[in-house]
Amino acid sequence: MKYYFNESIGFIIVKAGRLIENKLKLNFEKENIDITPQQWSVLTYLWNEDGISQQELADAFSKDKTSMTRLLNNMEKNQLISRQIDSLDKRNKKIFLTNKSKLIKKHSIKIAEKTLIETLGGIDHKDLKISKKVLKQINKNLED
């Protein structure tokens, strides 16, 4: 079997991810929502589980501590999150949503839903279900 870079599963996944991020970023900018796709991901996680540790967030996104710290520093600077010392373990910081991030929730979700519709246009529901199953298995294979 001959290897073709642009046909490799890794290339296809990475390219699709970048294109989705670029589209989401563009859609946020058009609507004057000042967040990045990476910040959006953290916010969506916190909207479901506010007050988790920085390490839990890093683990959830498979990010190293340095990358997560940099992302959270920018979010804190933009008043999207606040950090508080964990009362049970002073070495840990808990991450909380701010009023600003709570206020943009509904609008940003609508933008993300629009982006999802644009992303998945023309894809059969059954094909999408199979694609998700395959990608989840790839993630599982690589996490083990």
Question: Could you characterize what this model shows?
Answer:
- The chain is mainly α.
- It has one domain: Winged helix-like DNA-binding domain superfamily/Winged helix DNA-binding domain (Arc Repressor Mutant, subunit A, Orthogonal Bundle), CATH 1.10.10.
- The protein has helices at residues 9-30, 37-48, 54-60, 65-77, 99-103, 105-120, 125-143; strands at 52-53, 81-85, 93-97.
- A hairpin with a 7-residue loop joins β2 and β3.
- The mean pLDDT is 93.
- A 3-stranded antiparallel sheet has the order 1-3-2.
- 65% of the residues lie in helices and 8% in strands.
- α1 (9-30) packs across α6 (105-120) and α3 (54-60) packs across α4 (65-77).
Helix-strand layout with pairing:
Layout (H helix, E strand, L loop, with lengths): L8 H22 L6 H12 L3 E2 H7 L4 H13 L3 E5 L7 E5 L1 H5 L1 H16 L4 H19 L1
Antiparallel strand pairs: 1-3, 2-3
Question: What would the keywords be for this entry?
Answer:
144 residues, mainly alpha, Arc Repressor Mutant, subunit A, globular
Would you kindly provide a brief summary of this structure?
The chain has helices at 9-30, 37-48, 54-60, 65-77, 99-103, 105-120, 125-143; strands at 52-53, 81-85, 93-97. The protein is mainly alpha-helical.
Name the beta content range.
Answer: 5-15%
CATH class: Mainly Alpha
CATH architecture: Orthogonal Bundle
Q: Which sequence of SSEs, written as H and E, runs from N to C?
A: HHEHHEEHHH
Q: What structural class results from the helix and strand content?
A: mainly alpha
